[in-house]
């Protein structure tokens, strides 16, 4: 059993990113970056279990080409019957979550990174291997990854494909650390107890949260951009000297999703300001390939100067 989403302590930034990407799939994938042991994987799994009742399709380090791309069912092939078998990319596209989860994504082989990039960009998977030649269309999924920056950065081409990046920091407040330990130990003690009020309440809160996110997803199309919001997205992108227009677009899409989550009929500058870090932290200049400079108070101040009327 996975720790219920409602029992997670902290991780506000990562949870916000996952919720925004769920409400508006056009935002793109989510990357969680942080040191080991900060429950990045637990948060992703808890969110997926809450929303679709299943764990995400996961691409493990060391996965073979045929497991990722697809190949032949070996047992049937040995009996002389050639029957295709879906790889992880197709499985992710067909899964309820429509998500491919990659732990330690910065350690993934460059060859597989290039394949994933191409499929995420085009929705087309070309399989050319061992007598199987096939082009599969509509292979669409959200790419969600986690990484420990101490183990190396990500290639800029892959990093830019993530709509949102959440920085997961270890809790330093003693009270928060106590809550984490208490929650996990109680969960381990009561997760198999059918009469546990603790677990029943957690599952009920998860059900309420899922209903709220599904409602936000349903009303997303009715949310409109307020006066000056599109201009605000362009101003923020210019202030941070973004290359290309992907950042501008994701700012608008993420702000709209946040407005839907909050039940607002219009997107305002406050919504743009509150998603700015998630959208921009990985799109600023980088010294070394894939290395993210920390988001600072000056970055917050730059957003405030660009959006002087924003609240939140």
TrEMBL record:
InterPro entries: ATPase_dyneun-rel_AAA, ChlI/MoxR_AAA_lid, Mg-chelatase_DI-like, P-loop_NTPase
Region span, Disordered: 289-312
Residues forming coiled coils: none
GO molecular function: ATP binding; ATP hydrolysis activity
SUPFAM superfamilies: P-loop containing nucleoside triphosphate hydrolases
Domain ATPase dynein-related AAA: 30-162
One Pfam family from the record: AAA_5
PANTHER family: CHELATASE-RELATED, MG-PROTOPORPHYRIN IX CHELATASE
Protein name in UniProt: Magnesium chelatase
Source organism of the structure: Streptomyces radicis
């Amino acid at each position: 059993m996975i720790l219920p989403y409602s029992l997670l302590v902290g991780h506000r930034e990562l949870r916000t990113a996952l919720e925004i990407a769920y409400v508006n799939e056009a935002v793109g994938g989510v990357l969680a970056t942080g040191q080991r042991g900060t429950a990045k994987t637990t948060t992703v799994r808890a969110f997926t279990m809450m929303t679709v009742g299943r764990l995400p399709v996961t691409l493990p380090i060391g996965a073979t080409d045929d497991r990722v791309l697809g190949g032949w069912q070996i047992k049937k092939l040995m009996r002389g019957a050639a029957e295709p078998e879906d790889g992880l990319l197709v499985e992710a596209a067909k899964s309820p979550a429509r998500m491919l989860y990659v732990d330690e994504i910065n350690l993934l082989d460059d060859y597989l990174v290039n394949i994933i990039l191409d499929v995420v960009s085009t929705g087309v998977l070309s399989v050319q291997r061992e007598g199987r030649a096939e082009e599969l269309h509509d292979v669409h999924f959200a790419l969600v990854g986690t990484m420990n920056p101490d183990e190396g950065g990500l290639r800029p081409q892959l990093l830019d494909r993530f709509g949102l990046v959440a920085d997961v920091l270890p809790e330093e407040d003693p009270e928060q650390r106590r809550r984490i330990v208490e929650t996990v130990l109680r969960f381990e003690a009561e997760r198999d107890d059918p009469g546990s009020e603790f677990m029943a309440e957690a599952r009920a809160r998860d059900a309420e949260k899922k209903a709220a996110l599904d409602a936000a997803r349903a009303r997303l199309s009715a949310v409109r951009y307020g006066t000056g919001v599109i201009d605000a997205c362009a101003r923020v992108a210019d202030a941070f000297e973004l290359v290309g227009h992907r950042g501008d677009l994701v700012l608008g899409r993420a702000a709209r999703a946040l407005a839907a989550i909050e039940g607002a009929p219009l997107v305002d500058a406050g919504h743009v300001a509150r998603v700015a870090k998630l959208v921009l932290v990985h799109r600023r200049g980088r010294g070394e390939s894939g290395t993210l400079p920390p988001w600072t108070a000056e970055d917050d101040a730059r957003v405030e100067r660009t959006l002087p009327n924003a609240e939140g």
